[in-house]
Amino acid sequence: MSAFNQAVFQVVFTGQLRPGVNAEQAARDFAAVFKIAEDKARRLILDQGEHILKHDVDDANAARYRDVLEEIGLEVRVEPAGTPLGGDRMDGAAADDELPPDWGGAAATGAAGAGAAAFDPADPYAPPQADLTPPMTDDDGPMTGPHAVPAGHGWLWIRDAYALFRARPRPWIGALATVYLINVAVSLVPMVGSLVSFVLGPIFGGGLMAGAGKLDRHGEARVSMVFDGFSARAGQLALVAVFYLVGILAVMLLAVLILVGGGVVSGAGLEALSANDPEAFAAAVAPTAIVLLVLVVMALMIPLIMAYWFAPALVMLEDMTAWEAMQASFHGCWKNIVPFLLYGLVLLVILIGFSIVAGLLVGVGAALAGSATGVLGFIAVLLLVPLLLAAAAIGVLTQYTGYRDIFRHAG
């Protein structure tokens, strides 16, 4: 009978990394995906010994863990549960019930064999051989946030989002592509298309937050996660969009009232603005007034964006109402202004770098193509689409990792 016909299996890290994988990066990704301390993950990966990372699982779950670990860069194998590591068990090896309960029975299994390190209770940093990822539920207790986190966490949100994306890139690229295609199709509907697309935004966002939670907890991801928001929470998610839209209209009205009250915008300019005539508005208003209007709108929009940022995650994952979620989101962002500034700066640098590289690639290709510039440009755009979708997916995942840090893990 083959190993895969057995009832239960164990997932073993061979101590080796896949070709081209950086050990430090693999340790960071491992710690982020499986939510263990980085020093423990680094010790596990760098000691080059065999370790049982998951034991007593069925074939489907064993295959799932193997896929996640291989995405991170670890060389793993799946074998029948109880198979000794690197050889037979040592005589007198400790039984499972003699080990600390948090470590399960893998220490005894791995006590023998070349390169398999035994568990040392006196060493809290010893690389774990037992179940690093015990079965997780969707109930981690009540939310304890929002918490204030150190400034450097703004970078950690991006790093952890990349680690989650790297574990399951294809479903996330497919999910973001699905969202964009639906939005494009809906926006083509006359009169109401843009409004419907706006309302769908937080509903899709709620589905993506639920998908991020499943990836984080269980290592699972699927393209259809974008539709998970069309659930019992759809009404509250849509209400988030309504509140956000009302807020945008209020911001525009308040900005105009401030500028008109201050004599910056004349009656003719206000009339052109209400008629949605940009050329007439530009002719009636001084350039400095336009700049001032933009700055006022941006300043007023920041609190509104803060209220919206975590709202889909809080509605979907914490069962909050739309209003409660937007209040909590604002408070979470307000308590973490400095981390958000770092987060925004890092994203800006990444975006600028990506834009420069993409522009250079297209420009060089066009210069070499001569008369085929149009065709080459089209091909270049097609090649850039997956990269753009990947960047968008990581951006969405930063909303989840930020929510997780501020509302769940800190404190």
Element-level helix/strand string: EHHEHEHHHHHHHHHHHH
Sheet with most strands? 3 strands, antiparallel
Please bin the fraction of helical residues.
Answer: 55-70%
Overall average pLDDT: 76
Low-confidence stretches: 1-6, 87-139
Strand order of the largest sheet: 2-1-3
Features:
411 residues, mainly alpha, Ribosomal Protein L30, Chain: A, three-stranded antiparallel beta sheet, 62% helix, 6% strand
Descriptive overview:
There is one protein chain. With 411 residues, the chain is mainly alpha-helical. It folds into two domains: 3-109, 2-Layer Sandwich (Ribosomal Protein L30, Chain: A); 153-409, no CATH class. The protein has helices at 23-34, 38-46, 59-72, 106-109, 153-167, 169-187, 193-218, 234-261, 267-274, 278-284, 287-309, 311-318, 322-334, 337-369, 373-409, and strands at 9-17, 51-57, 74-80. A three-stranded antiparallel β-sheet has the order 2-1-3. The longest helix has 37 residues, at 373-409. It is globular and about 80 Å long. Mean pLDDT is 76; it is low at 1-6 and 87-139.
